[in-house]
TetR/AcrR family transcriptional regulator (Pseudonocardia xinjiangensis), 210 residues
Amino acid sequence: MTERSPQFLRSDARDNRDRILEVARATFARDGLDVTMREIARRAEVGVATLYRRFPTKEALVVEAFAEQMATCTAVLDDALADPDPWHGFCTVIEKVCVMHALDRGFTAAFVSAFPSAVDFGQARDQALRSLAELAARARETGKLRPDFVVDDLVMVFMANGGIRATSSASAVAASRRFAALLIQSFAARPGARSLPPAVRLALLEPLQG
């Protein structure tokens, strides 16, 4: 929990809080969750004490930074469940969420991390997984989703998709869409019905430093 609700903060404190969150979102998206709190404070141009006053733990900062992305993920699933064609809804979830995760390394890590004290975030994730399980069950009933699919398969997909490294955001999105199309074909009861998006040349990983 943060120290005080945003609506009760002074304007300067609220500005600091908003700047910290803005910097944290951008930093986590680009560099993942390994960035230190001290580095977040430096980039946000606030003191470390100010950062910890607003967000007593890194977990609190991560959860608050990704609240909007989690809400977007929930909305994608709600729309998919409302789709009269469950298989189409299932495919749409894979396509949209893969793009979200490809653009935001931090959200992938946050989604698959255990945050013991972040009850609301955990509940939102659990609800998203339950919605996904329901959507998959409906898609299986149509005969279009392979019968041995389980929700953990898609969690594994998001982990793998989060590892995409490209030279630009546009390339990351293009690569993620092709990856999603390959996955959809592998999940289909009768693969091969969809054509793949164009291939994308990806950036190689930097060599490990000794």
